């Protein structure tokens, strides 16, 4: 293209889009450089240079905000010479005739650093050192790094597209990072945390987010990023390359991406090795972007600032659920969201998903229950409760006590928050009950009835997997169980609780001291548990008195008398099962409810080959049940 051709180029109409104005300004600025380079080693034609500068001024007048090159140069604090080198490297890609002009004038189609040093004003050697912005952030590349001044300069493709106003994520980054949109609305408790995160970022430190519900951590970070004018991108530390060189290269790409487009980065350390998390956080201090680390608190506190992300208070959780239901146009009864939020402690993303399920026709309670189910590993088993109130044979006063536990869960929001009881103390907001009595009197059955009535899972803690001989492990196991139960809104059942809650003893050696610490931890954790926990024991007298004081309710299950046993035998076989039984005569046999249920099942198996379950088979099953404890039909 000749100077006359460039001077004859018609002016672009006013009112063009920013994308077009950005392109025109980039091409016009490149034209100014071309005038200098084509004329080198002589002086550029003043008229031609003035005309090129005039076209640049006209192009810039079309802009309503800085060009992509302006913004990048400002973010990196590029000198005028560094800016010119970057623009010069785009020349062969931006305008095909540039390569022809460079070949004709200097013998090769791409510019070199040596040519830029000689031909452009304000030249300085430091512009192309590995630590200078152009190479540190991989904006330009030397085709032959062994000859820095003679090597052709090549602009990286991602940078070229950015300068042209095209946004996309580097493929290597797209493989490990995903965008996290900001929440539609942020509850006040989380808004305060997001403000704290922004303050940490303003001081140039990584924010280390810790909280009991991992799903909330990226949500709060995304809100903080949005308030800072950034988009949050989430990277799993476990997905980063393990080789130091490869990881450093990826972090440089992250840094460059942050310079090209405003972004904040969250690194999820869940599942990462502690040494990887530590090395990562040390490297994150060099990134020119806001950074959050999710989890791995014990490994990174020395390098980051800890920010706690709490559970949402019930009132805020109810408001968030109501708002989510409104967004999904989901129907619900008056006050239903508050009642559900009082039971199910869902993270903010799960509230949104549950609202979507409700809009699709799932009852809100069931939608939240499905979204809240937790995993307990081998430390507990989840029971889908089937027992009903009719299966219990207890005095009316005992049944009333059990029904009060159901009411305590159903009305948590009203009592604790609408009536203000939660404002008095943060302790004892849950419901803990002890079921005491001899074996087989219905303690576990009652827990199942309550769970079914509430529409919750019954989680039976396996004490053999929880209690450990290693110091501190029992507490860790219990903490995991309690946290999972709180997230899952399950009824937590500790059978034979005296194993854990026995009386503290006089300290004679280190074993006594650590055993007492375990009991003390259980007392503290039970008091802070916000759900429903039921403990059963056959030996109430061995329980620590401090533990008994923390219970909401103690229900003593009586050994069944003859009238109760007769009722149990009448209900022992499902309706429609052909069985010949004499409940009045069988009630004379001294068996608790659990023994009666076991004998009925055994008799059913004995009679399964015939048309009916005979009285003799029931009697045989009863004798076998008594024999388990060394007893016979002649006595207890």
UniProtKB/TrEMBL annotation:
It comes from Micromonospora chersina. Signal peptide: none annotated. Coiled coil: none annotated. SUPFAM superfamilies: P-loop containing nucleoside triphosphate hydrolases (SSF52540). The keyword Nucleotide-binding applies. It comes from the Bacteria. Residues 429-561 form the AAA+ ATPase domain. It holds the Pfam family AAA. One of its GO terms (molecular function) is ATP hydrolysis activity. Belongs to the AAA ATPase family. Keywords: ATP-binding, Nucleotide-binding. This is ATPase family associated with various cellular activities (AAA).
